[in-house]
UniProtKB/TrEMBL annotation:
InterPro entries according to UniProt: Beta_hexosaminidase_sua/sub, GH, Glyco_hydro_20_cat
Pfam family, one: Glyco_hydro_20
Annotated catalysed reactions: Hydrolysis of terminal non-reducing N-acetyl-D-hexosamine residues in N-acetyl-beta-D-hexosaminides
Keywords: Hydrolase
Organism for this UniProt entry: Streptomyces haneummycinicus
Protein's name in the database: beta-N-acetylhexosaminidase
């Protein structure tokens, strides 16, 4: 999963990453195109999404508690022709592209472009701009029929740009569904009337109604919805799939309920997490996840039965780019750990303890030379090079081992 919403990656950079994926036999790009900090895909019927929503005035440097700012505007977007080129380039390399359009949270960029999408009876949505910092944003979409119609219009264009037959997993469309605070809905007369009109018990059920609407809408068009594991709350239609990011538990629950699962638990395969506890590690985020940690990752939980385990479609590593401002930073966080993920994904060893990390390290000696030839600014096994460090940029290191679950 490549996040181009927090920091935009130009088309040429995306094509380069498709080449790197193909070199490692990775066959799906989960393309995170929209978030609070930027809207990156041209939607012709809603031009303000990119005219306004693709640019922010400044950007927080480092963790959101950092006092540092980059005061230059940041932005960019892919035209529809860019998207067609990316999808075709991927297909030629046997890679499917799964677009993500986030709803109902992570949507401030869309609200900044079209204020009527927000909870305007609670806050002055016309004053919102594209968000310039990180974290969980309280400004979420209004749960109204008008919002549904708007995003149906968005998705109609998305389906045309990402054909269902363009590669592995191409029928899927990711709708996010994570980290949606309900405070504005609780304070909104409009949201409360919607809850009453629909006969729902609470705001959590209202989010489930929102997600279920697009589940049915996509299914009617021969497509499949996938979302982060929060979409399990309130129940899902049988065809929907789940990206299990909050540990294994969401994926286990989804598989046992008969849903397909992509395993991407943050404790194991979030590549924005730091790679070492040393003081030179640039912008240290969360827990230490070393190359060996990723190599030891087991995508299929042992507690699943054979039929349940068959629901695990695969695994992915998530590259969130809040603290990755350019290609070099993305390379550093992604490689060489993505190489370990590729071997894990295609391994036929049922137990991660059987994987020989010493042999993997030995083979990486030759592979580092390939990465050098490809111009990949990976993290060397001996630690960051001087120009890869970010002294003085505040991160969010967490002590102790990552929580499981």
């Amino acid at each position: 999963m490549l996040d181009v919403a927090r920091h935009f990656m130009p088309k040429e950079g995306v094509l380069r990453y498709l080449d790197l994926m193909a070199a490692h036999k990775l066959n799906v790009l989960h393309f995170h195109l929209t978030d609070d900090q930027g809207w990156r895909i041209e939607i012709q019927r809603y031009p303000e999404l990119t005219r306004t929503g693709s640019w922010r005035a400044r950007t927080k440097i480092g963790h959101r508690a950092s006092p540092l700012w980059d005061d230059s505007p940041h932005g960019g977007h892919y035209t529809q022709d860019d998207i067609r080129e990316i999808v075709a380039y991927a297909a030629e390399r046997h890679i499917g592209v799964v677009p993500e359009i986030d709803v109902p949270g992570h949507s401030q960029a869309a609200i900044a472009a079209y204020p009527e999408l927000g909870n305007s009876d609670v806050i002055d949505t016309a004053s919102l701009t594209v968000w310039d910092t990180w974290g969980i944003n309280p400004n979420v979409l209004a749960p109204t029929d008008n919002t549904l119609r708007f995003y149906e219009g968005v998705l109609e264009e998305v389906l045309e740009l990402f054909p269902a037959d363009a590669g592995p997993f191409s029928p899927f469309v990711h709708i996010g569904g994570d980290e949606c605070p309900k405070d504005q809905w609780r304070a909104s007369d409009t949201a409360q009337k919607q809850i009453s009109n629909l006969g729902l018990p609470d705001e959590d059920a209202l989010q489930s109604w929102f997600i279920r609407h697009f589940d049915g809408w996509l299914a009617a068009r021969g497509r499949r919805l996938i979302g982060w594991d929060e979409i399990l709350e309130g129940g899902l239609a049988p065809g929907a799939a789940v990206s299990s990011w909050r540990g294994y538990s969401g994926g286990i629950a989804a598989a046992r309920a008969g849903h397909d699962v992509v395993m991407c638990p943050q404790q194991q395969v979030y590549l924005d997490y730091r790679q070492d506890a040393g003081p030179d590690e640039p912008v240290p985020i969360a827990y230490v996840r070393t190359l060996e940690d990723v190599y030891r990752f087991e995508p299929v939980p042992a507690e699943l039965t054979g039929d349940e385990a068959a629901r695990v479609l695969g695994t992915q590593a998530n590259v969130w780019t809040e603290v990755m401002e350019d290609q070099g930073r993305v390379d550093y966080q992604t490689f060489p750990r993505l190489v370990a993920l590729a071997e894990v994904a295609w391994s036929d060893l049922p137990d991660s303890a059987e994987r020989d990390f010493a042999d993997f390290e030995r083979r990486m000696g030759a592979h580092y030379r390939r990465l050098d030839a490809l111009g990949v600014a990976y993290r060397p096994p001996t630690g960051p090079l001087p120009w890869q460090r970010r002294p003085g940029v505040l991160g969010r290191p967490l002590d102790g081992p990552p929580p499981q679950g």
